[in-house]
Design a protein that fits this description.
This protein is an alpha/beta fold. The chain is built from twelve helices and twelve strands. It is globular, with a radius of gyration of 21 Å. It starts with 6 loop residues before the first helix and ends in a 22-residue tail after the last helix.
Amino acid sequence: MAASVSAAELEGSATPREGPTVPTKTPITNAADVAGCDSAATRTPTYLSSLFVTPLKYKDKPSPAPNTAHSDRSLHDHHATAVPGEGWSNDKTRGRESANPTVVAMVEQQFPGALAEGEFIDKLVILLEQNNVVVGDNSLLATSFCCDEVNRSLDSKLCEAFGGQNFSMGGLAGFPFGGVTSFGAFSHHIPKPGGSAVVVYAPHVGVDSTGVVGKVDRRGMPASGACCGSACAALNFCKEQLEKDQAEQFTPQVDFLDAQQAWVGQALLPHGKEVVDASNPMAQLPRALYTAQKEAMHKIITAAAPGNVPENTPLVLVGGIQINTPTGTPDFFLPLQCELRSPAGEVQADLLAELTDPNDTKWMSPERPNDTSETISG
């Protein structure tokens, strides 16, 4: 039977749980190694994806006066509000540049089914409302995304939809390093009675302005760079290990200075060969990381949900892949899991097919079920 998290554990006084085995060798993290990990990336002809034919309800909030100390790609540009009936608009710049067709084509080619960020959140909110899951102020969001600053856009927009704040479980590469203790604490913060819990997790990958998968154009940088850098470093570590004699054994790493990266490398290792042998390793890499993160999240919820998530509280688990893009093109999200679970963490309904159904246009309705508000935040 799954064990619940005790109050002592939540306060930090309990004996720490045993962690995973980690490699002795420090993972490769220098700039040269990370920058070179996209060697297998490919490019694509320029055509505009059908993903943008459908109008979205997401639009930027009015931005404050420009601050010369910051780039135009500021946090304010990422906040969204629902505007019924209006077409999709760029959520990254005040200039509203047209989406880069090379980037969009590559996303469509390598990550079929990916939704523009705003579309993903719109459809998720409508789907949950249709399944009697509370959104807005009575919901609590937990996310497990990579530390990388390019991922804060999705964090911000999800917060708009689910109560304004989020509990952060994630660390490098998006792994839920907060573990059982963080999920237990999150569970005790869920509004009650009548609240809901929404957990969204994902590794991420970039597509730069020339269509290279595994890189992204960052603010203030003269050229695109590795994305996800932690994932690339882990892949380089796996390549080294695959070249070694199988008899060589790992010894747990005791130094905490790069413990998360060591764990990412160890978690990726069972999938290392399939990534290396893929036609586009950089497109396969986030899929392998997603598989490892899905397993970790399942173990965490199985251990920590029973006895901690309040009774009669719906628990929603959403997993996928974040796709970061250059300024002027919306980021994307590829949904791979969407489940409605009981307070004990048991799956009650698989909602993925409904979330990803390209023929479902209910989310485009100017008025959501039982709601005439123009804002997505409830």
